[in-house]
Amino acid sequence: LAVLMNPKFFWEPLDERQRKNLLEFLRVLAHTTAYDCNHWYFHLMAVLLLDMHGTDSNREYLTMIFDRLLNWYRGDGWFIDGGNYTFDYYNLWGFQLYNNALCYFDPVWKKQFGERVSHTTAEFLKTFPYLYGRDGGPIPFGRSLTYRFASLSAIGWAVLNGASTLPPGEARRIASGCLKYFWDNGCLSENSLLEPGFHGP
To answer: N or C end: fewer C-beta atoms under 10 angstroms in the chain?
Structure first.
């Protein structure tokens, strides 16, 4: 994802051997089995860079997987996360992020799946603002450091992919409010690094 977003910093500085090693790592990833949940998206993302550089990407098989992931949709913008048939907040930084990112970077998958992705995203964004409190903080939260801001990826990738149905001002307010919430609650240490806790250390 970093290479696709900013090759200037994450691809161009690599020498030929490093690029070959990275592509080989991604090729293996694209041809291995994932946990049967949102983890499949990591394998799908590998396809995009592999195709760009003429490396076997296992696209045909992973296209079937993409379709399978979209078939986990259960309405109102929510997907079950695999065989456990449960709903969780990976819907924000798993399904909503990667469905839109894959369509954003890949015109083939956008043509094939874009309409379905736009529909599920539009349904999800109807209630997305209610996942945040008046103070800007997310009402749900994850257990990992990065999950503090990860919920915003659902809105960011929808905007990039042209699938957002939120008014731009509301989208911006949700994003800025969430970031301000964590800033005000001590997310940065004295060294300007992110603290490991949800609030501070």
So the answer is: C
